[in-house]
Structures are given as C-alpha cells and as structure tokens.
Amino acid sequence: MKKNNKTKKAEKFTQVVVIGTSAGGLSALKKLISQIPKDFLLPILVVRHISPDATGNVVLDELNKLNSVKCQHAETGGKLKPGHLYLAPSDHHFLIGGNLKMLVTKGAHENRSRPAIDPLFRSAAVAFGSGVIGIILTGYLDDGTSGMKAIKNCGGICIIQDPEEAEYPDMPRNVLNNIEVDYCLPIAEMGALLIKLIPLQSHIRKPIPEHILIEAKIAERVLSDLSSVNELGDQVPFNCPGCGGVLWKVGKDSDLRFRCHTGHAYTAAYLLAEQTNKIEETMWTALRMFEERKNLLTEMARGKKGVGSQTALERAKTSQIHIDRIREILKTDENKSGDDMPT
Fold first, then answer.
1. Would you call 337 a catalytic residue per the annotation?
2. What 3-state DSSP class applies to 113?
3. pLDDT tens across 262-279, in order?
4. Closest CA to 148 of 167, 168, 174, 166
5. Residue 296 CB partners (closer than 8 Å, separation 6+)
6. Number of C-beta neighbours around residue 84 at 10 A
7. 18 pLDDT more than 60
8. Which of 140, 286, 301, 308 has the lowest tally of Cβ within 10 angstroms?
9. Does residue 143 have an active-site annotation?
10. 22, 123, 130, 146: which one is catalytic?
11. At what angle do helices 117-128 and 210-221 cross, to 10 degrees?
12. Cα 140 from Cα 89, distance rounded (Å)
C-alpha cells in the first residue's frame, strides 16, 4: 500500500469570534476569557476602547495571567490562529483584510474612537459571513450596534452581556434595543455557550448587503471618497466635528448614522456627544476672549480722561455681562448628568 506523501493543506477558518467593549471592559474580558480553554478552536478578535497614549500591554498582561488562550496585539499581515486572542492596538483600527489576514490601520476615527468596534465587526461580517460570533460587553453609548447589525445581516450570531449585570450597560442595551439578538446572558455563561456554538453554527454564505461592503472597503482603504458616501446616503446640513467637512446621513430611525467623505463616522449619539464637546470648547474660548477684552478696556480706561475713560469703562461692563452669561451656561452644563458624554 502506497503512502500518501502529499502534505495536507492547512484548512482555512470558517468561523471567528469578535468582541467589543469599552468602559469596564478589562474586568469583563477577564471574566469571559478565563472560561475559554487553551485548545479553543477559533481565533478571538477584540476591540476595547483605549486612549491613544496607552499601550494596551496592561490588558494583555492581565489576560495572559489567566492561563487561557494566548493573547497578543494584532499585526498587519498576521495570520489568525486557533486558541489565540488578538487585541486592537491603541490609536489603530483592527480589521480582517484579504486572505483572512489581520489589517491594522490609521483610518479616520469612527464614533470618536480608534480603535472602534464597528469597523472590526463589519470586516468580520464581510470576510466570514455566517461564521461570525459577535459579542458586545459593557461600555458607554452605542459603538458596536451598527457592526452587530452587519453581522446579523450576514447570517452571524449576536451575543450581548445582560445589561442588568453590565458595569456600563449602554452598549449592550443599545444592541438589544435595535437588533433581535440571539443570546442575552451574563458573562459567566458565555464561555460554555461559545464552545457549544462552534459545531452548531451555519456555514452557509449569505449575500453581503452592498452598504456593508462599501463601509468595509472605506475602512480598509483608510480614505473614503465622494462616490462611496453618495451611495450610502444623502448630504445633511451638519459638519463633521473631526475635519469640518460635510456629513452624509447613513441609515434612518434607530440606525441613524453619519459619515464624511474623509472617513469619519458617527452614530447619532456620538455625533451629539462630539457637538456637545465642541460647544463647550467654544464657550471656554469665548469666556477667555471676553475676559481679555474686559481687562484691556479697563487698562485703557486708566490711561484716559473724561469721555474716553467713561466709554472704555462702559464697554468693559458690557464684556462683564457676557462673561457672567457664559459662566452661567458652563455651570449649567456641568450640572447635567452627562449621559451623552462617553469616556
């Protein structure tokens, strides 16, 4: 009997797990990953919102202490391996590119974040179709909701942490309010569910909706263009807080989102939060300028006599009125609950 000397080709992955989290994410990730065995059959891809000046090493160190899957930063061109967790580096988006290899880019911020959850989830939906298992854990606002819709539309499975147990329930609750999720459960039950789902998940490829393909290509190319955003929606009378360009409305109702032609993207909640930040910045600048104006007019009044001195003092008093008004507005904003202000 002849031996078959042909080397068996490595089988391509047909499934992947993608996880998105933000505030409270380190604790949530540790609880979840501690349940995953070393010989887990799928790669796990994670985006956790992180500040640009952080390295992410703290997260990796904490996860690697769990004696579970091997955890490392994603690298462009790297191949996905089973039993490995890949974390998005700070200040970079993490995508699945051609040939199912990792792609790390410096594309425009989405939902005020880089890395953002939506770009990873969309790219996974395009690359793996019904083979994606998407998970949303604790976090502010609604990054991940649009990406989860892409996963759902392409036949994947959607899992969220029960908002009632989430440290910051916004992200899982927004998914729950906008998508018919497959599973809503505590983190303690997710590990067993993932192991159970692997052999049960459908591998039938569904057609990828055109709008998902367009947005995935925008993120992969790093730069958007007019023809792409024109296909996604209509121009609206709002400016992009990131670059000052015109915005296009993408989706409608609960899925209302916005994009500019340079690549920035916002859900309605994130756009409102960014506008609020810009308004506050403008108010502080106006306060400084009025105070400087009042001080200059006061100095001018000291060096004048008669009518000129009185005019300068009157103008300084007018500036003080504006200063008091702006201060009252800023104090009012400080007393707000801040529900539209993510961290």
1. no
2. strand
3. 889 999 989 998 888 888
4. 174
5. none
6. 17
7. yes
8. 308
9. yes
10. 22
11. 120
12. 20
For residue range 19-44, what is the model confidence (pLDDT) as tens digits?
Answer: 999 999 999 999 999 999 999 999 99
* Integer CA distances (angstroms), 150 to 165, 173, 231, 242, 309, in order: 25, 17, 17, 24, 67
pLDDT for 1 equals 42
Nearest to 220 by CA among 145, 126, 90: 126
Domain coordinates of the chain in residue numbers? Answer: 16-197, 223-263, 271-334
Rounded distance between C-alpha atoms, residue 161 and residue 321, angstroms = 50
- Taking the model in full, what pTM does it have? 0.83
Q: Which fold has domain 16-197?
A: Rossmann fold (3.40.50)
**Which whole-number Å values give the CA distances from 152 to 181, 201, 296, in the listed order?**
8, 13, 61
Q: Which of 68, 92, 142, 143 is catalytic?
A: 143
Is 125 in contact with 156 (CB distance < 8 Å)?
A: yes
Q: Please state, in angstroms and rounded to a whole number, the distance separating the CA atoms of residues 79 and 202.
A: 23
Q: What is the pLDDT of residue 307?
A: 62
Q: Which one of 49, 92, 93, 264 is the catalytic residue?
A: 49
For residues 57-74, give the mean pLDDT. Answer: 95
For this structure, is 49 an active site residue?
yes
Tens digits of residue pLDDT in 297-318: 998 888 766 667 888 888 999 9
Q: Which two tokens stand for residue 190?
A: 């997710």
The rounded distance, in Å, linking the Cα atoms of 13 and 43 is: 9
Which range is least confidently modeled, 41-45, 78-82, 117-121, 209-213?
Answer: 209-213
In one-letter notation, the amino acid at residue 179 is I
**If DSSP codes are grouped into helix, strand and coil, which group holds residue 67?**
coil
The confidence score (pLDDT) of residue 199 equals: 81
Closest listed residue to residue 342, CA positions, set 198, 141, 151: 141
